[in-house]
UniProtKB/TrEMBL annotation, chain A:
Topology class, membrane: Multi-pass membrane protein
PANTHER family, per database record: ABC TRANSPORTER PERMEASE PROTEIN (PTHR11795:SF447), BRANCHED-CHAIN AMINO ACID TRANSPORT SYSTEM PERMEASE PROTEIN LIVH (PTHR11795)
Keywords: Amino-acid transport, Cell membrane, Membrane, Transmembrane, Transmembrane helix, Transport
Keyword Transport: yes
Transmembrane segments: 12-40, 52-71, 77-97, 158-179, 212-233, 239-263, 275-296
One GO cellular component term: plasma membrane
Superkingdom field: Bacteria
Main localisation: membrane
Organism for this UniProt entry: Rhodospira trueperi
Pfam families: BPD_transp_2
Family, per entry: Belongs to the binding-protein-dependent transport system permease family. LivHM subfamily.
Protein's UniProt name: Urea transport system permease protein
UniProtKB/TrEMBL annotation, chain B:
Organism lineage string: Bacteria, Pseudomonadati, Pseudomonadota, Alphaproteobacteria, Rhodospirillales
Tree of life domain: Bacteria
Signal peptide: none
Location of region: Disordered: 1-21
InterPro entries cross-referenced by the UniProt entry: ABC_urea-bd_UrtA (IPR017777), Leu_Ile_Val-bd (IPR000709), Peripla_BP_I (IPR028082), TAT_signal (IPR006311)
Positions of transmembrane segments: none
Gene Ontology biological process terms from the UniProt entry: amino acid transport
Alphabetized Pfam families for the sequence: Peripla_BP_5
Species of origin: Rhodospira trueperi
UniProt-recorded name of the protein: Urea transport system substrate-binding protein
Length: 308, 435
């Protein structure tokens, strides 16, 4: 494999592969975080998670067009506005969906699975009707594209750094919210014992709605960020949903820390294997490993003891 | 073989001078072109149109949906589901062709009516709808399918009920059905000319093959690899990714390390967007042509999703680009935009879909009948001088003779044609040793 390369080149390969793995890790965390909150904290299997992400991507698309047409001077910073709006839009839609559909199905997890899958189809068709069946191209500000060349082989991708920074910010934010803030305590209380939480005066329905909206909002931000690396089309959400569930289930559904650990494991092994094998084989091996580990440890890498 | 075959065809087309001429009339009405032949055509048209329509009993002996004034055809594409992205353009092109043929007097004096069915990106649905079109609607021909999987699904239906399918997509070859006319290029036509060009013009010596993981990219890369290695050049890597894969950083690192002269890319669908965006983000500037990127899977349609600035500088090898500079194409692009909107782009497959209805019309008129068997018999040798891509002719193996061109991607999402083969490429769906 390494025949004919100098030590310098081999060092560069490892540096670049490590970096590629870190980007993939950030992407996985970003897409799984919203689902981890919804699935982990509420037990709702949200099959429409990908479509909430794509809502964020379309908001970004609309924003980029708006800025390009009306305030081109500020085009360089539109991405931040777009991410904020994506959070609001996806969060608002999430709250609406929770109110109209999810809350009626809390005790029927398999029915939420079907209902949210139906929702994902409805959303896909809605995007298709509004934006057309074709993918749309989101124009990015120039500073987000390209890379710094450290050496002639090693390039550091700017959008990779951006995704990493964003992921770090959101993860820390969610961590603080969940473990330091009053809202997080309420969420955890409701998750651990809904009846008792209600008995001590927590409005559990309100907490549910906010939690669901938060998860969807984060999905929206993720979708917005992924316009830098992926496609924006009515069905593009489907590209992410399998990986997202994989990360959350593998990590142990109730644990945010587990989600992060699992994203790290899967991304590093996937990116390393992709280098040595073909992409399809890497995927097969990753899935096999995950299946194997889940057979030995059905609750996932990390799990909390929860009273049902 | 073809010269002897085509001569009678040419003559038979000349018997109907009003058709191409009235096409020109339409173009003029559309504000596109004016031609000196116009007054002649206009004086011929009223007396000829519909007057010579032969008896229905004579042109339809097998119970197809043909009346004294109409003939029914089918359009079978996905207008919902993941493939809707790609297939929409084909549907639009087919409707445009049908519209134009009707405006020019129809086929054998009969107006074409179409029945449109939705394959819904689901292969069994394609088969079911194909059966419905052939058995219930009794259509005289079907324009449709896009992916190889959908074509393979409808193939037994068309062979069982003896229908005629005009299939527009460039594909992997290895197929030849008496019930299908393939209006797109098969793999060798697209691949050989492209590789020969980069070797000759750009001095390429090493190639990195990359594709989505299914039959078309795998077969195409097999053909490419053989062609490359036969010339003593090297393939330094070959990689496949599952459909919908969105992370290409690892393979981009590999490419950087192997330093090939050419990245030969057959990535499709949503992966395409991720691939080109990440390639650019990783500092591979395709305008430097070091490495140079050659693709056979990105048409103008796909560039809309990828973004012109992300693929600028790449080369594509296919038979049609929207920017082709000839009178047929200028009129076609103008008519297409007039019908479907100014922001439309037209890719290779869309143009191939447009050819289907015209080839069918020419075959029906040569046969003097709508009967499937007679149309099939008449098809080899049919030529189209009005094709937007220039000139095409149906080979005995039901594929088209066509030129292959190299396009250079520009930031505005269009290709600039930098090369075309001097001769028509012969379709060869069963290349020796590639199966």
């Amino acid at each position: 494999m390494f025949d004919g390369y100098t030590m310098g080149e081999i060092g560069a390969i490892f540096a670049m592969q490590g970096f590629a793995g870190l980007i993939l890790f950030s992407v996985f965390v970003l897409m799984a975080l919203g689902l981890a909150i919804i699935f982990g904290q509420m037990g709702v299997i949200n099959m429409a998670h990908g479509e909430f992400m794509i809502l964020g991507a379309y908001v970004t698309y609309l924003c980029s067009n708006f800025f390009a047409d009306y305030i081109p001077a500020l085009f360089g910073i539109y991405f931040f506005v777009a991410m904020f709006l994506a959070f609001l839009a996806a969060g608002a839609l999430g709250a609406l969906v929770e109110w109209a559909m999810i809350r009626h199905l809390y005790r029927r997890p398999l029915d939420t699975l079907l209902a949210t899958w139906g929702l994902s189809l409805i959303l896909q068709q809605t995007y298709r009707s509004i934006f057309g069946a074709r993918e749309v191209g989101v124009t990015l500000p120039d500073w987000l594209m390209g890379s710094f060349a450290l050496t002639d082989i090693i390039d550091v991708q700017i959008n990779g750094l951006f995704v990493m920074g964003l992921t770090l910010l959101i993860t820390v934010g969610v961590g603080l919210l969940m473990f330091k803030a009053r809202f997080g305590r309420q969420v955890r209380a409701v998750m651990q014992n809904r009846m008792m939480a209600g008995a001590v005066g927590i409005d559990t329905e309100k907490v549910d709605r906010k939690t669901f909206a938060l998860g969807c909002g984060i999905a929206g931000v993720a979708g917005s960020a992924f316009t830098m690396i992926g496609s924006t089309g009515p069905t593009a959400g489907q590209l992410y949903i399998v990986d997202t569930f994989l990360v959350v289930v593998f990590g142990g559904a109730q644990s945010l820390l587990g989600t992060i650990a699992s994203a790290f494991t899967i991304s590093q092994s996937q990116s390393a294997m992709e280098f040595f094998l073909s992409g399809s084989m890497a995927k097969v091996l990753t899935l096999l490993t995950v299946v194997g580990i889940l057979m030995l440890r059905p609750q996932g890498l990390f799990s909390l003891k929860v009273r049902r | 073989m073809t010269d002897t075959n085509t001569r009678p065809v040419r003559r038979s087309l000349q018997v109907h001078p009003d058709q191409p001429a009235s096409m020109e009339r339409r173009k003029l009405l559309g504000g596109a072109l004016g031609l000196a032949a116009l007054p002649l055509a206009a004086s011929l048209l009223p007396s000829r149109a519909f007057a010579q329509a032969p008896l229905t009993s004579a042109v339809n002996t097998t119970g197809l949906a043909v009346t004294d004034s109409t003939v029914k055809v089918g359009i079978l594409h996905s207008i919902t589901g993941t493939m809707a992205i790609s297939e929409t353009g084909s549907v639009q092109a087919e409707k445009l062709a049908i519209d134009q043929i009707n405006a020019a007097g129809g086929v054998l004096g009969r107006k074409i009516e179409f029945v449109q069915e939705d394959g819904a990106s689901d292969w069994p649905t394609f088969a079911e709808k194909a059966r419905k079109l052939l058995v219930e609607d009794k259509v005289a021909s079907v324009f449709g399918c896009w992916t190889s999987a959908s074509r393979k699904a409808v193939l037994p239906v068309f062979e069982q009920y003896n229908g005629m399918l005009y299939y527009p997509t460039f594909y992997e070859g290895l197929e030849q059905s008496p019930n299908v006319i393939y209006t797109g290029q098969e793999a060798t036509q697209q691949i050989l000319a492209g590789i020969d060009w980069v070797v000759k013009e750009k001095g390429a010596k090493s190639f990195y093959l990359i594709g989505s993981d299914y039959i078309w990219p795998r077969t195409s890369n097999k053909i490419a690899r053989r062609h490359i290695e036969k010339q003593g050049l090297s393939v330094v890597g070959e990689d496949y990714f599952p459909l919908g894969h969105t992370q290409f950083n690892s393979v981009i690192n590999k490419i950087k390390l192997k330093k090939p002269d050419v990245i030969y890319a057959i990535v499709v669908g949503g992966s395409n967007v991720a691939f080109y965006k990440q390639l650019k983000a990783a500092g591979i500037d395709m305008t430097q042509e070091h490495p140079l990127l050659l693709t056979i899977s990105v048409t103008e349609d796909e560039i809309r999703g990828i973004g012109g600035e992300n693929i600028e500088g790449a080369y594509a090898a296919m038979k049609y680009f929207q920017s082709l500079d000839n009178e047929n194409n200028k009129a076609f692009v103008a008519n297409f935009k007039e019908m479907w909107g100014d922001d439309m782009v037209i890719g290779d497959v869309t143009q191939a879909a447009y050819l289907g209805a015209w080839l069918w019309k020419a075959a029906v008129e040569k046969a003097g009948s709508f009967d499937i068997d007679k149309v099939r018999e008449a098809s080899p040798g049919i030529e189209l001088t009005t094709a937007p891509e220039g000139y095409v002719r149906i080979h005995e193996n039901h594929h088209l003779w066509s030129k292959t061109r190299i396009g250079h991607a520009k930031a505005d999402g269009q290709y600039e044609v930098v090369y075309e083969t001097a001769d028509l490429m012969e379709p060869n769906p069963f290349p020796e040793g590639y199966q």
